[in-house]
Every structure is written in structure tokens, then in C-alpha cells.
Amino acid sequence: MVALQTLKSINSDLLKTQSEISTGKSVASAKDNSALWAISKVMESDVKGFKAISESLSLGESTIAVARQGAETVTDLLTQIKGKVVSAQEENVDREKIQTDIDALTSQIESVVGAAQFNGLNMLKGTDAVDILSSLDRLGDGSVSASSISIARADLSDSAGTYGGGGVSLAANAIASAGTISNAGNTEAITFTDSTDMSAADFQITVAGSTLNFAAGTFAPTDTEELAIDQIAGAINALGLEGISAARNGSDLELTSTRAFQAVDLSFSGSSVSDGTATIAERAENVTFSAVAQVNAGDGYRVTVGSDVATYVAGEGETFEDVANGLKAAIDAAGMEGVSTRVTTNDNGERVLKIDNNSGTPITSFTAVGEDGGVASGGLFGLGNVDVTTNHGAEAALGNIEVLIQNSIDAAAEFGSAQGRIETQSEFVGKLTDSLKSGIGTLVDADMEEASARLQALQVQQQLGVQALSIANQAPQSILSLFR
């Protein structure tokens, strides 16, 4: 019985070892080791999940690569348009032919934007972000969640968008400085002391960095104050300062500036004038945008300039700089005679849209309003309105094309960064999958060298067990022979 039990035990171990060698697993089923089998099955399910994630990342990477290449192509085409716009700044060129080239390049940009899709997904149109499945996160409590890489679209169309619909006024975020846009210059007066003998006066006046010194004896004792001021005004006008003129107004020296986007600094000192400084404000009127308010997708702003209404609707992630540039492009596209624009930042960090009127008459209607709930304008808003056939259009296009190029560059850079991130994640998922497979193998795979050696040992033990059983069976036969 002992020999039989020993042989059974050896045979059982032999069968187990043969199973390990044939299957390659030391834990082939839950009965072999339920804990390790359960862990391995969970890890195997994760491996399957990460294979699907790897496929998702490959699809996402291809999609973003197409978008990046499209944005880079658009940037190159916009750069070519800029070259045409710069050429159009000269008056002795054929602007009509240049405009034809610009129109052709614009059509090519539209074609590139429309074709930049992969499997039906175009990242150069629309504003909704696209989520790409990137990881499978398992917590210690066994719960599982999926992680995604969110990629923002870059709308490189020139669509105008749709204004309003949300019902919430945003006028407080865009303040117009006045109700009219004057075509006249701004003035500042310098007052002279009536009791001062102008012939004995010693004073100086600085206008826009140019200084005039009037020493005692410059004027004759017989010169009246009015005549002296006329001579001072003539000296200032003789400086030839662009947009600046001087004239006498009663007993004051009045300086006028028609500079659109530049204030003029004045300083004056001496015995006949009160020491001090003054500033002649720029002629342009301002639309000042809030430095603290947030711009949301669909927020629309409108600026009325005379009978023309300029509209821009913000997209996802845009700022008041984008809004100001969009409104500038819309105003420039209207082609209003004598109206020019510029976007700057004031000392308070607020974006400012400046509008100047150099026409023959003042513009009596000037307002700024806003409303939420619209559909965003395209990132190349205003491209279709580039017109270099006129001096005004060529000058406006030069500033606007810079904004469009920067938008396109930003889009390509964002896509390039996203593509790099996806590639990194894809490499990590591949390495993680290999590590999981290695870990599963460590848990359940058989050590083939050990199993082979054990097989040989068990086979020897089996032979010895059979021989021992045979010897054990011979003992009763020997006893029986004694009775015979």
C-alpha cells in the first residue's frame, strides 16, 4: 500500500509537470492557483484594452498629422499673400494683377482647409475639441477609468460666423470712447503772461521732441504779444512736424494735431509762460475692451461706424486681442473712405481698437455692443476681403495679413505639439503593454528548464516506484510458498 501510494504521488507530479511542459504555464486554470490566475486574467484584459488604445492613438496621430500639414501649407500660402500685399504698397505697380494672384492663393487656402481631413474628421474646421483615447487607468480598489487627450480644433476658414442669440448683453466689455468720430484735430493751448514784455522774455517750447528756444531780444520791443505769438506759431510750423500745426487764438498759442494714432507731448518753460507739460491726444476714437472679463466661444461684438456695422464672433480659447483684430479686419473690409484702424494695448493692459477718420466729414454714429450665444467666426476671418486695388485697401491688408499668418502659425504649432504628445503616449502604451505581458508571464508561465529537469527526475522516481511495488508484491508470494 505504501509503494502504491508513493507511485500514485509520483504519477500525479509527473502529469502536472507534463501539463506545464505542454501548455507552457504553471498556472493554467483557477484550480492551479486561484489568486495568481485571477490577477493574470485582470492583467490580460488590460493588455487587450491597451491594444485598442494603441489603435486609437495611431488613428488620432494620423488625424493630427494631416491637420498640422494643412496648417503649415496654409501658413506658406499666407506668406505668399503677404509678399503680394507688400508689393502692392508701391503705387506704380499693377495692383489688379496682384489682386488676381491674391484671389488665387485665397482659393487655394480654402481648398487646403476643406481637404485636410482624415477618415472624415477635419481639425481645420469648427471649434469643438476632439478627444483621443489615450490610457486605461486602474485604481487600487479595482475601478477603471479611461483617459483622453483633448485636441482643440483650429478653424482656419474665413467664415463670418453668426452674431447673438444668447440674450446676454456684453456691451460692458467693449466701451466706445465717444458717440462720434471727428475728422478734426485735437488742440492744446499755451497761455502767455500778459504782463511780460515779449522782447525781454526768455523761454522755450518743445513740440513732439523738437525744441525752440526764444531768448531775450528775439522779438522787438515794438512787437505786440499777438505779433510775437504769430511769429512763434510760424516757427513751429516751419519745423514741418507731420500732422502738427500752430496758430494764435486770441492771446494763446494753439497747437493742433491730426496724428491719428500718436499723442503729441508738449513742454514749455520760461518767464512768459507757465512752466509745465501737456499732451495733445491722438485723433482716433477708441473701443476699449475689458482686461478682466473672459471671452467665451460664441461671444459676439459689433462696432457701428457711420452706416457700416463690423461684427466678429469669438471662437474657443480666444481673447479680446482676437476680438479687436477681428473687428479691425471687418472695418477695413468695409472700405470706408478715410477710415483707418489699429489695435494696441493701453497702460492698464486693456486691448484697444483705434478708429481714425481722415475724411472730409465727421462720422456721427459710433457705438460698440456685444451679445453671447453666437457661432464663431473663422480663424482666417477677413481673408476673403483682402483688396489691394486701392491705397487704403493695400495699407489695411498689410496689418491684417500679419494677424492671419500668426493665427495659422499658432494652429500649426498647437497641432505639432499635440502630435508629439500623442507619439509619446503611443510609445509609452507600447512599452506598458510589453511590461504587462512580461508580468503575466512571470506569474503564470512555467520555468521550462526547471520543468524539464523535474520531468527527468520524476520519470526515474516512477521507474523506482514501479520496482518498489513489484518487490512489495513479491513478499506475499514468498509467504505463500512456505505453506506449500
Automatic annotation (TrEMBL):
Alphabetized InterPro entries for the sequence: Flagellin, Flagellin_C, Flagellin_N
Cell location: Secreted; Bacterial flagellum
SUPFAM superfamilies for the chain: Phase 1 flagellin
Domain of life: Bacteria
UniProt cross-references to Gene3D superfamilies, sorted A to Z: f41 fragment of flagellin, N-terminal domain
Function recorded in the entry: Flagellin is the subunit protein which polymerizes to form the filaments of bacterial flagella.
Protein name: Flagellin
Species the sequence originates in: Litoreibacter arenae DSM 19593
